[in-house]
Structures are given as structure tokens and as C-alpha cells.
Specification:
Order of helices and strands: EHEHHEEHHEHEHEHEEHEHEHEHHH
Helix content: 40-55%
Shape: globular
CATH superfamily of the largest domain: Glycogen Phosphorylase B
Radius of gyration: 20 Å
Strand content: 15-25%
Number of strands: 12
Largest sheet: 6 strands, parallel
């Protein structure tokens, strides 16, 4: 069985979808002959808004090897690469329509129309989101995380942390500096948490000017996990998500999660009761609602430990070897 995996990113230290594909490759490489097409071996133009489209164009120019049995594409924007004579699987990690609308406004409409026309070429569509699977009739194969690797990592201790930051006295943001992640909302939450609780904040993946209460940094993946293990909470402010890797990493790290109540995360909260606290516009607004949840965690250690335990229980369902095996079964079904 020979499978061509296509995504702009691939690897343990890159984006959520890149890590997902890395784990898929790692746990099935002894059963499946994988070929990887990513930006590193296909090429791209290194300009932020041209990376994906330039990768797609370069991939279009490449010849699909004749001995490929299955094309497994991990971004609907690249669905135009599918070939009729192959088994075609599309995995959707994010809400591509919402993401394009946020990024490009009305200019996104023709792009979305083009993507939708190509998605129909897939024999099977999977999604990491149980909500999208239910609403669209797609197959749910969830996101995954290497639990054993996370458990090996020690928490950050007082002497190894950023200056002025104490274990248990900071909240975390982990994500790209893009509109969909809504870092500006986290910044407002950080300011209010500092004002009310004197709890500081760390934004990982965003480089801006530091303040007395908010530090910005880009660090290695192991440091991210170490910081999660000593944080008061991870705060997810995204305007849209599918099944974010940082959520799984936080669950496995024993880090409580306070997440914006967007539909896909609300669905996960429904399936895995009390695995996270969510905030909406109630109580005066998003900032006020988030700070209220963080205040509960800060002042009630038993309450915090309960959510940590519920996160541990939830993440057991998404260990990488278990989820990767679901893809292996799907590959065999497609080739029947």
C-alpha cells in the first residue's frame, strides 16, 4: 500500500495539521509506504499570503507517481490535486470557509467556490471535528497527540521560567499571530487578569512588545509543554477551530483549558463533559466571562484539580497510536 500525504507542513514541531500528519506517518510507516509532499520538498514562495497558493501551484506541476494507491490530502485548498484513478481521501482540520472569510473578506467567495468544486473529487472526507462530521455527513477521525511523549516532559520550575513569572501564577496563549486565533482578545484578558488577580500571561507564537504582565516568545515544543504543566490555565481565544492540538496537549499536560465557546469546541465540551471551561458574551462580554472562569480556577484548587482530572480522562481517547490505526483501517476500506 503506497500513500501520498499532501500538506504544506509536516513535522513534530510545526502546525497542528503538520503534527497530525507526522503522527500518522510515525505510527503507520511500518505498515504503509508513505510519500510526503510538503513545502520543504515541493517548494513555495516565502511571502506570508503566498505560501499556500505557491505550494499548491508547484504541487500541480509535479507528476503524481504511478505506483501511488491513495492520495491523502490534509487541506481542502489542495483538493484540486486529486486524480480520478487513485483512491482519494480528504482530511479537513479547520473551517476553511470561515478562515478564508476572516482573512480575505468578500474576496474569499470565488476561492471557496473553487475549493468546494474540488472537494467533490474525494472518495472519503474525514474531519477532526465531531461537529462538522455530524453536520456534513463526513467521517470523524479525531486529532491526536503522543501522550507518552508529553508525560516524559517535566514542568517548568521557578528557576527556569521567564523573569517575574511564577508557577501557577500565569495563563498561556499558544498560537500563530493570525486573525483567526484572535490574539488581541487574549491581550485584553491578560490585562484584566493582571488587574484583578495579579496573574501574569505568556503568549507563545506571537512576537510583540512585552509589558509588566504579558510576555511574548517563540519556544521549542518541549518548552511549550513544560509551561503548560505549570500554568494556571491555557486560554483559547480562536474565532474558529476544528479540534486544536493545543487542547489535547493541555489535557495531557494537566493544564486546565478556558476556551471561547465556538461551536466545534462546545461540541467537544458536550461529548467530554467538564473537560474544559468555556466563555461567551455572558456577564458583560467575552473578556469578563473569561476572567470569571480564570478566577474560579485561581481561588479554588479542588475545582481546578477536577478539570485537570477530566482532561486526563478525555485525552486517553486521542492517543496517536489509536487514532493512526483508524486511518489504516480507512486506507484498507478505500482499496477494497
Amino acid at each position: 500500500m503506497k500513500v501520498l500525504l499532501i500538506n504544506s507542513l509536516f513535522g513534530k514541531k510545526v502546525s497542528g495539521s503538520g503534527q497530525h500528519i507526522y503522527n500518522l506517518w510515525k505510527y503507520l510507516k511500518d505498515k504503509v509506504d508513505f510519500v510526503i509532499w510538503d513545502m520543504e520538498n515541493v517548494g513555495y514562495i516565502n511571502i506570508p499570503k503566498l505560501k499556500s497558493i505557491s505550494f499548491y501551484i508547484k504541487a500541480k506541476w509535479k507528476k503524481i507517481p504511478k505506483d501511488i494507491d491513495i492520495m491523502h490530502i490534509h487541506n481542502p485548498k489542495f483538493a484540486g490535486l486529486f486524480e480520478k484513478e487513485k483512491g482519494n481521501i480528504l482530511t479537513i482540520h479547520g473551517d476553511y470557509k470561515r478562515e478564508l472569510e476572516i482573512r480575505y473578506g468578500f474576496l474569499a467567495k470565488p476561492v471557496i467556490k473553487y475549493i468546494d468544486s474540488n472537494i467533490s473529487k474525494a472518495d472519503v472526507i474525514t474531519t477532526v471535528s465531531p461537529l462538522w462530521a455530524r453536520l456534513n455527513g463526513w467521517k470523524w477521525i479525531p486529532n491526536m497527540v503522543e501522550i507518552s511523549e508529553i508525560w516524559k516532559i517535566e514542568p517548568i520550575h521557578k528557576g527556569n521560567i521567564f523573569k517575574g513569572i511564577k508557577p501557577g501564577k500565569y495563563i498561556l496563549f499558544v498560537g500563530r499571530d493570525e486573525p483567526v486565533k484572535d490574539y488581541p482578545l487574549f491581550r485584553k484578558i491578560a490585562e484584566e487578569v493582571w488587574r484583578q488577580l495579579e496573574v501574569k500571561s505568556i503568549a507563545l507564537g506571537v512576537i510583540r512588545e512585552n509589558t509588566d504582565y504579558l510576555i511574548h516568545a517563540k519556544v521549542a515544543w518541549k518548552v511549550v509543554i513544560s509551561l503548560m504543566k505549570s500554568a494556571l490555565a491555557l486560554v483559547i481565544t480562536s474565532r474558529h477551530e476544528g479540534f486544536p492540538t493545543v487542547l489535547l496537549e493541555a489535557w495531557a499536560s494537566g493544564c486546565p483549558v478556558v476556551a471561547r465557546r465556538i461551536p466545534p469546541l462546545a461540541e467537544l465540551g458536550r461529548l467530554f463533559d467538564n473537560s474544559m471551561l468555556t466563555f461567551g458574551a455572558e456577564g458583560g462580554g467575552l473578556v469578563e466571562s473569561a476572567v470569571l472562569k480564570l478566577t474560579l480556577l485561581y481561588h479554588n484548587e479542588a475545582f481546578r484539580k477536577y478539570f485537570i482530572a477530566r482532561g486526563y480522562e478525555a485525552v486517553k481517547n486521542f492517543d496517536a497510536p489509536v487514532v493512526a490505526d483508524q486511518y489504516y483501517k480507512l486506507y484498507k476500506e478505500v482499496l477494497r
